[in-house]
UniProtKB/TrEMBL annotation:
Signal sequence coordinates: 1-18
Protein name per the record: T9SS C-terminal target domain-containing protein
Organism of this sequence: Paenimyroides viscosum
InterPro entries the UniProt entry points to: Endo/exonu/phosph_ase_sf, Endo/exonuclease/phosphatase, Secre_tail
Highest rank taxon of the organism: Bacteria
Domain Endonuclease/exonuclease/phosphatase per the UniProt entry, residue ranges: 26-276
Length: 417
């Protein structure tokens, strides 16, 4: 009997050890980083620090520099190393070029390939991942990120349908067995009867997709769906600039943002949806037609988080959690982030701002050293017991530079424009 109990204990221990979670988040980051307030990369950092997404999907990214700003600053406090997809410019609207991007935890995911699905209105990006389990028995994850046409009216609904169809047609080309699929984005759907939403759920699709929350109905301005509303985080756009750059007001009353998933997340023993984890992040379900940080919108999500969400975007993120039911094949590692990190963009023509852990500096080791690509020391910056250090780049020539500190293997790279 003792042997049976011991064996059972060991089996349960292995099972517990083998389970990893994968946190997914989709976020419309609203014309990042161009819209007010300034330094939204730091606001986003605080939001991501709280949720810690392993797969971070976004839309309304303005530039490749903005993608690096998120990677190097907003994700700087994550325990594991992160990477991003290749930036491929969306040329559909050159006057307002906003597009999608994914960032991912490299300990849990490997990006194998990516491609662009052109549509009538805006490109949709497809990212092909493998979950880092036994490479002899891979788990395939296909991720589609979209920003569908906005506004009401039959022409806009038809355009959203046409964009969705580009994804559902692409599902026919996913031939690996048991491929898992996520389709995320700002879909701008007003209700579950919309033809685009119904097309996503069409059971005849090559891979069946489902809405994890399974909440059909008319979502707009409906108190029954207050817990799902993602726009707008603001009752008024006053204070966020002018015109379209200020974003939408009116308070939370629309479910525009979604993460849809393939049905096999509910049936797989290897990679599965964690019931009850899908939510409009920051929505305490009592904020209909109010700002997300309204004093009366109390609940699970703190006022600090809701203030950050209010300032970051006119949308709330959508989050969902999955479980990886087998051990990861890559070794666990933590990145060297104990010395310094970027608090500004690493592409600049004015200044660079570096955050440092001052506990690693003293009177003998109190400087940052900037080198050019020839290995020549071009600038020395004193730390002076400051946790945030800004230095001018105006006197540097155009090109790439490296920042080092004694006693650390960390090397930060920046580009002087």
């Amino acid at each position: 009997m003792k042997k049976i109990i011991t064996g059972l204990f060991l089996w349960l221990s292995v099972c517990a050890y083998s389970q990893e979670t994968l946190n997914a988040m989709f976020y419309n980051v609203f014309k990042f980083p161009n819209s007010l307030p300034q330094n939204r990369q730091l606001i986003l950092r605080d939001i991501l620090d709280e949720y810690q997404p392993d797969l971070f999907m976004i839309c309304e990214l303005a530039t490749e520099n903005a993608a690096d700003l998120i990677l190097n600053t907003s994700l700087q406090n994550q325990v594991d190393n992160y990477n991003r997809a290749v930036f491929v410019p969306d040329l559909t609207d050159t006057a307002d070029p906003l597009q999608t991007m994914v960032f991912y935890n490299t300990r849990k995911l490997t990006l194998v390939s990516q491609q662009t699905l052109p549509t009538i209105y805006r490109d949709i990006n497809q990212y092909s991942f493998q979950v880092n389990v036994d490479p002899q028995n891979p788990i395939y994850l296909e991720v589609f990120v979209a920003h569908l046409k906005s506004s009401t009216g039959p022409a806009n609904r038809q355009m959203r349908y046409d964009m969705v169809e580009a994804v559902t047609q692409q599902l026919q080309n996913l031939t690996q067995p048991n491929t898992h699929v996520l389709f995320a984005g700002d879909f701008n759907f007003y209700n579950a009867t919309e033809i685009g939403y119904q097309k996503i759920l069409d059971p005849t699709n090559a891979i069946k997709l489902i809405d994890p929350i399974n909440a059909p109905g008319s979502w707009q301005d409906n108190p029954s769906f207050s817990y799902l509303h993602t726009q707008s985080t603001r009752l008024s756009s006053s204070g966020f600039g002018g015109g379209a750059n200020a974003g939408a007001g009116g308070g939370l009353d629309d479910r525009f943002d979604f993460i849809m998933m393939s049905e096999n997340f509910n049936t797989s023993s290897r990679f599965s949806y964690v019931n009850g984890t899908y939510s409009a992040y920051g929505n305490n379900a009592n904020c209909l037609n109010k700002s997300v940080n309204d004093a009366t919108c109390t609940g699970t999500y703190s006022l600090t988080l809701r203030n950050n969400l209010y300032n970051m975007s006119d949308h709330l993120p959508v989050v969902v959690q999955f479980q990886i039911n087998e051990p990861l094949a890559t070794p666990s590692f933590k990145k060297d982030k104990t010395f310094m990190w970027f608090e500004s963009s690493n592409i600049t023509d004015v200044e660079v701002i570096i955050g440092v852990d001052i506990s690693h500096f003293n009177t003998q080791n109190n400087k940052l050293y900037i080198y050019n690509t020839l290995g020549q020391l071009v600038k020395t910056v004193s730390v002076n017991n400051q946790s945030s250090i800004a230095f001018s780049t105006e006197n540097l020539n155009t090109g790439m530079y490296f920042i080092k500190a004694n006693g650390s293997s960390t090397v930060l790279k920046f580009i002087k424009k």
